[in-house]
Amino acid sequence: MSRPPLAAACAAVLRRDLVLAWRRRGDIAMPVLYALIVATLFPFALGPEEALLQRIAGGVVLVTVLLAMLLALDAMFRGDIEDGSLEQLVLAPQPLALMLGMKILAHWITTALPLIVIAPLLAGMLHLPGAAMSVLLLALLLATPLLSLLGAILVALTAGTRRSGMLLALMLLPLCVPVVIFAAGAVSAAQQGLPWLAPVAWLGAALAMALVLAPLACAAALRIALDA
Amino acid sequence: MTAPPARPALLQARALAFRRQDEPVFGPLDFSVGAGEIALVEGDNGSGKTTLLRILAGLLHVDEGELSWRGEPWQGDAHLGDILFLGHHLGLKGDLSPRENLAVAAGLYGRRDGLAPADALRQIGLAGYEDEPVRRLSAGQKKRAALVRLLLLPATLWLLDEPYANLDRSGIEMVNGLLAQHAARGGAALVTSHGAVSFLDGAPRRIRMHA
User: Fold this and answer.
1) ipTM surpasses cut 0.85
2) What is the number of alpha carbons within 13 Å of residue B94 lying toward its C-beta?
3) Per CATH, is B1-82+156-211 categorized as 3.50.50.60?
């Protein structure tokens, strides 16, 4: 029996998830609004002193984006498990890890990309200097897919439990620590005019590893979740 | 067990049993399903019909007994794509239309030659509802939106869990027609039914979950 082409299967999964997200675009706006509000709270809480805000701007934006991503993470596979789409995906004659990789990509496009788009606005509100802005965006471009991939593993592991939102946050946040350290380290180095390439390279290396391993781990975890 | 030696049965089970937390769910069961055969899986509620189908689909691992597929021991994903599983959860996205849902399934499983998706949707009785979001369809229409995969996807063995649920009289006849057509083509199917009513007239082969 001839198996359908891999590219067509990847496109079908990616397209389906993007169309679904577009039909519920209110849900896409939620993390963006959340990030906007959280970032606005800082000047209110700490006062409008420019030097102080400038110093914390990079870290605030990073943590805000991370927390906003957490909001949407829990829904990554939930719908598919509830309506049986996941069973159909597992039983399809396609490499499951790659199909899940497509789902993670769709999730990143619909949740992280809008956050990256508004990140300059958030950073601008906190007076982040222009020179550090490009490093912040680069750090976000590397850190957010890493978080999506790490998060996907945890979502897959907690797939069997009901209302896993809080559990997920508790499990993911410790894993975020190195990501935040390297990303924030790059931004503050750029702000002080120091070389910032090393932490960014670490992020890139971690992302490369997660790109390969995370979908495989997700596939194994979801197979176990269904086998119960 | 009487598969002709030239062509081994598609699916063969020997002393297949399943337990959940040391509590036996069913078995041991012995059966075989050959090409062109439709088997009716009978049993009361909770007798393990769905569990059996999930094992055969490859979603649950085999606890005890042996399972072979086309004469070879059951392993890995060799059978993927050759088996079409339709469970209680229909695997439909409520925000997508039947046409879009079918396109995703065809992208993953491939397509049988000679039938366009639009014709398949018309044949299954969804004419006029192709572009309506599935969540707005009735339960019977949702079932049809899932059953349309049987027409379009190229699987040999169908595992249908309660395919008649929610269907009207014409829908039941249509499913029987699809099964007959599939058997004539050399395909095989396992169909569960809770035994109170059997819509599959003169089912050639019966698998009883309770002795």
Assistant:
1) yes
2) 10
3) no
